[in-house]
Amino acid sequence: MISAPDVVAFTREEELEDDLYREPPLPEEYSVPLFPFAGQGANPWAKVAGSKFTRDFILISEFSEQVGPQPLLTIPDDAKVSGTFDLNYFSLRIMSVDYQASFVGHPPGSAYPKLNFVEDSKVVLGDSKEGAFAYVHHLTLYDLEARGFVRPFCMAYISADEHKIMQQFQELSTEFSKASECLKTGNRKAFANELEKKLKDLDYTRTVLHNETEQQKKANDKGYYTTQAIEKANELASVEKSIIEHQDLLRQIRSYPYRKLKDSEFHPYEPECALDRADVGSDQDPAASDHAEPGETPLYTHMPSYTPKLIKAKSAKCFDKKLKTLEELCDVYFFTQTLDQLHHIERTFRGDVCYLLTEQISRALLKQQSVTNFLFEDVSFLDEKPPEKQYRGCQGLGQDAIDEKCSEESLAPKVVISLGSYKSSVECVPIKMEQEMEDSEEPKMSESVMSEPQENLDYLDADIKGSISSGESIEVLGTEKSGSGLTKSESQASLPVMPSPQAGRSKVGSRRTVSEDSIEVLSTCPSESLIPEDFKASYPSAINEEPYVDDDEGGLRFTPRANPGVDDGQDDISKQESLVQVDAACCIGKESPNFLEPLPELGQKPCEEDGVVRIPPQPYRPAEQGLRGGFPSHDGLSGGLLPYELDSRYLSGSREVSKSSLDECSDSTSYMSSAASTCSDRTPSPAHLGSAAGERHRKRAGQNALRFIRQYPFAHPAIYSLLSGRTLVVLGEDEAMVKKLVTALSIFVPNCSAYAKPVKHWVTSALHLVDFQKWKLIGLQRAVSPAGVNVLHALSRYSRYLSILDADSKTLRCPLYKGTVVTRLADHRTQIKRGSTYYMHVQSVLTQLCSKAFLFTFCHHLHLPISERESEESVVSRRMNFLKLQLGLVNEDVKIVQYLAELLKLHYIQEPGQGGNPLLRFDYVPSFLYKI
Amino acid sequence: KSSVQTIGEEQIQNPYTELLVLKGHQDIVRFLVQIDDYRFASAGDDGIIFLWNAQTGEKLYELHGHTHKITAIAPFSSSDVTEEKTDLIITASADRTVIVWDCANGRQVQKVSCFHSTVKCLTVLQRLNVWLSGGSDLCVWNQKLDLLCKTSHLTDAGISALVELPKNCIAAAVGKELIIFRLSVSNSGSEGWNILEVKRLVDHQDNISSLVSVNDLTFVTGSHIGELIVWDALDWTKQASECNFWDSSVHPDVQPEIKLSQSPHETSVQHLTSDEECVFAAVGKGIYVYNLQMKRVIACQRTAHDSSVLHIEKLPNRQLISCSEDGSVRIWELREKQQLPAEPVPTGFFNMWGFGRANKQANQAAKKMHESTPVYFLELVGDLIGHSSAVQMFLYFGELGLATCSADHLIILWKDGERESSLRSLTLFKKLAQSGDLQLRL
């Protein structure tokens, strides 16, 4: 919606020359010069030529106590993916960075072995020789037969794109934590099972031994013990000791705090556990391994009752035993769950980082538009818990990286500038905290913010210095532990991590110094919140000018801001974005200044001409406070009307830009994508987390829609019908053809609620009024049978509620349309060639419509009289004036916005729990028959 | 081919631009009855009674108790001096029971099942705080469902309609006869009531199909063959009558609509309604407006619908709504026409041919009369198409809209889209204000 993924850059090419000189030339700042090395057929998007694998994959490795580090499996499980990449070598690399002290044994003060509930460590490492960068997630599983009861494993997300790993660190971490937690849960279960069986074995052995000893005692009445008897007694004693130890282990594993799998933010340590852990020090438990019977690998099939076996005292050699597989370790169910999760991760992070970021941005923005987003977006995924944005700085770091790269690689200074400007919008405040602040201490906040940063910076600096000084080839700068510690202190202090130019500099330095080593550990959780030094330079004006000083007093503030001083740049940018995209925040958050003096405000935008192209991938801002959450009182709004400037200028401006860029770029992008080869695969990123199907659908729908627009000259009235809530029936004999048309048109159908898309692809029976309530786009079979007559009869009966597109005779019967919105939406001369691009174009136009509908719906004075004495007529005329003059709507466009507004109202009023009665709105307007 | 007037898709005056479909019934919905300003009940052949909110379309209660179809329903608000007003509804069913329901909680208050035949009509005498049930006999009940008195067995066919007349009288339509009963408190007992037959009126040639009280002085009956008789409510004499046999031949100006398949059904007076001046009759497919003062039909629409008109109602704003077996609801406006001498005026009432009892003199007289008086006509201002089967009845809720019920098991609430839209805005801003308050408090 917000941006098209295939609009990556605009490159001038020969073939476009014709089009270019006909249209007004593109402003200089939008054009990116040709990639300097384009001559050799190089792909400017190919970042690392040296990588030996074709696309990102996930590798699970184990540090086997028998053979050392070994790769276990890859996801996707396809030899082509890893290619010539040396998995063994890389396994060694990733296993060797596991710093964690994860072993079990007799702590000095304790008689029994202690299990150590080791937390996972998360690091990023790079191997420049292999051209591989990896997010590595270490975890430890328990195995009764393993040394120290532990089996170290790791899961790694391997990509050729370093920046991808860096920027997606938090997301990767969240997702992998889920996978890891799933594995560990299964493992605990399996381990407890194993222990129980072992206990039964031991118990049985003890009984047997005991009986034997008794028999010997009886048989032997000589008064002294034979060596045999002594041996037996020793054996018995050791079995008993072993029982106690195993019981203790069982108790420990069972006392493991129950946690929800889904909760990715838990802290695994119970206080006493943490204490215990400190004491853990010694080796493995000799008794346990002594008595382990290697031949008897407990079976994990669920047996109704377990027959205890005798455990022999003699233990086999360590290397003879067959270690359990990962599947055995974790219980089949959990293992498959984990694999599912890993596949999910693989799908989620597939594609270029640019796609991922764009997707995240639009998702974050969408989420903010809690009032309007249901209309044209698939918002079901918004219900998913978003990845926790705890370390905002991680994004900043990644941003920095991209910037550097851009300044190094591309020689266009303009691009750098624009990147620099958006960088300023990198949000440094963790979401979690912001919510806290929202809740409670908005006034206090700025004080605490002002007082704390210095301390924080020191902390960061110290951390970074440490990392620089280390000359090791492997540096682990950050782990979850230190990261979480930091977070805790942050949230206690209610302190946002402030961007620090100084820290940024040193950070950059550190990266450079390490780069000659083959393994670079790049991730630094604590120092992630760094913003490079050019951060400030990019928005100098924004700091000095304080457009929203009044906000605090006015009480109209929409989003609590962490720090007016520093965040102002971000505000500014975000405001521009709001204006460009006219999202929810535009109207509500900054309404009162706009009302009072809009023009100066617009005038001081540093780069307002940038339009849509100026929104490059950037880590998304923390979700602003949703509209639903807290809405400012609207009393201030009734004063005047929104100036026309606000809307028309930005909307039309952005439209022009987006249109041209979309049109021109589609070709070059498609060329690019076909030429693309190495590093991250070129398959477009999934539409959103976990729904590749959505993306495919969009693409297909977009393509079909394009075809529809080109084929049918009466596409406009058809689309208008859909947008104005008039049910469109696609009538035809051929099911495939009808379904295709329905798919094509479905992208124009506003949703009535968040859950059901009112589209029915194929119906064979006669329609009823209820159907028009439920569905706004219906594919209907035309049949020759008597039933078919009924169908047609029903159509003519309800013709006033319907527009009918006859796919067979290529006619359309529907009301007249003379507006402009649909013309823009569906220009049959459009040069957009790709379905997904067209889909994005549609989404952007529809988003503009949504924002208009939003403004219209939530402007108090448009619906209610300003004073008691005001007549209904004057309100109506004001409303129409607003629609026509302020929103610039022509003729039937008014109806579209009114319909959308009605949907917004219904959605907003509706109580979350109840579905509400679907209602059918209609107009008594004459229909016309269109023919090709 | 059809002479039915159509209006097309552009209906500027039609205010109903939004509809809500109320689902719940599993069979034909035949009755809608208003309970108070915002609630109504619906009942039909499935024996279930639903209570609805007319504003939101919300289903309030579902009343189960009858095992057969509902044959009559009447609202009954009992208001004792001490108690608060409670809204009750009385329903009669083909299972020979009558149940009284409390609308406030949807519970069954009481059930009577001592009937010998199906109760076909119910009427409430609010003034006396009693209600009457009419089947094969007429019973009088008080609010506590004590049988006060009853008539002897009248007819097997049962009473088809009841209407309250002044002076504690009741008119009951029994077949072709109209029987007037008087209700009196008997001298013997304190709670004793008596019902006495006072008069039998046998002026109708065919079964009386509708019976409506116009005001304290007049009531009107209509019969299956299209007779309309205006009665004096005090002395039960015939004030005027319109008969069905105005031969279309005496109206050369009216294009003959002679259909060979004409059946008595098409002349049947299905429903009557009235305001102070006029009686509106749904006759066959047509609608006729009979002016009580002028004692003649002042306007008509002979084929208002494609098939029989089942229910008509007069709205305060000179509009008339009719619903029909063809599944449509039409809105008419009674307009005064500038009289042009050359223009033929449709004056005929039942322009059916047929029974050879033409009253040409009356017709001629009427024709002469209205040359000097304003002429009215019914103009179609809108139609509502939604039901897929016969619309049995509708209920006009003023600005809340219009509820229609139909044989397709549905009830549709038709609403003024503009009004609903502004109401939603109002709700929206109220909700905003609430959440705004919430935020300030934090």
Automatic annotation (TrEMBL), chain A:
It holds the Pfam family Folliculin. The keyword Plastid does not apply. Residues 48-905 form the UDENN FLCN/SMCR8-type domain. GO terms for molecular function: GTPase activator activity; guanyl-nucleotide exchange factor activity. GO terms for cellular component: cytoplasm; guanyl-nucleotide exchange factor complex. Residues 481-494 have a biased composition (Polar residues). It is found in: Cytoplasm. Keywords: Autophagy, Cytoplasm, Guanine-nucleotide releasing factor. Residues 277-301, 477-514, 673-696 are annotated as: Disordered. InterPro entries: FLCN/SMCR8_DENN, Folliculin/SMCR8_longin. GO terms for biological process: autophagy. Signal peptide: none annotated. Belongs to the SMCR8 family. PANTHER family: GUANINE NUCLEOTIDE EXCHANGE PROTEIN SMCR8 (PTHR31334:SF1), SMITH-MAGENIS SYNDROME REGION GENE 8 PROTEIN (PTHR31334). This is SMCR8 protein. It comes from Sylvia atricapilla (blackcap).
UniProtKB/TrEMBL annotation, chain B:
WD repeats lie at residues 22-62, 63-111, 302-342. InterPro entries: WD40/YVTN_repeat-like_dom_sf, WD40_PAC1, WD40_repeat_CS, WD40_repeat_dom_sf, WD40_rpt, WDR41. PROSITE patterns: WD_REPEATS_1, WD_REPEATS_2, WD_REPEATS_REGION. Keywords: Autophagy, Cytoplasm, Repeat, WD repeat. GO terms for biological process: autophagy; regulation of autophagy. Transmembrane segments: none annotated. It is found in: Cytoplasm. Component of the C9orf72-SMCR8 complex, at least composed of C9orf72, SMCR8 and WDR41. The complex is formed of two protomers, each individually consisting of one molecule each of C9orf72, SMCR8 and WDR41. The protomers homodimerize via an interaction between C9orf72 (via C-terminus) and SMCR8 (via N-terminus). Within each protomer SMCR8 (via DENN domain) acts as a bridging protein between WDR41 (via C-terminus and N-terminus) and C9orf72 (via C-terminus). The C9orf72-SMCR8 complex associates with the ULK1/ATG1 kinase complex. Non-catalytic component of the C9orf72-SMCR8 complex, a complex that has guanine nucleotide exchange factor (GEF) activity and regulates autophagy. The C9orf72-SMCR8 complex promotes the exchange of GDP to GTP, converting inactive GDP-bound RAB8A and RAB39B into their active GTP-bound form, thereby promoting autophagosome maturation. As part of the C9orf72-SMCR8 complex, stimulates RAB8A and RAB11A GTPase activity in vitro, however WDR42 is shown not be an essential complex component for this function. This is WD repeat-containing protein 41. The gene is Wdr41.
